[in-house]
Amino acid sequence: MVKYRQKVFVENVGIIGDIKDKIIELSEGFEVEVLEIECGIDHIHLLISAKPTLDMTKYINIIKGHASRFIREKYSDFLRDKLWGNHFWSRSYFIATTGNVSIDVLKGYVEAQRGRSSNND
Known about the structure:
CATH topology: Alpha-Beta Plaits
Helix content: 25-40%
Number of strands: 2
Strand order of the largest sheet: 1-2
Largest sheet: 2 strands, antiparallel
């Protein structure tokens, strides 16, 4: 989630495609397959496939840190009035593992998040 839930993921700026590409690129280094990725206006949903030995905390922190630096550098003018201080993401995140739900149901959920506001989650 973007710090202070600022609405930064807007299609006309190009930030959505760039953040998705950066997350996919970084995930490859962890041998994580990104199955689905969608942006709300202030957050991202990822559906990934990873080995059970993945250090999830390290993975998330690397993704958030590197993606934040990349986006803040490339879109500094756009983000200037949206972010306070030098932070892009909030410190929180949510992870759920699957068991009783099919991958198709999860993909449908992530796809349905495209463009939803933070009030609808």
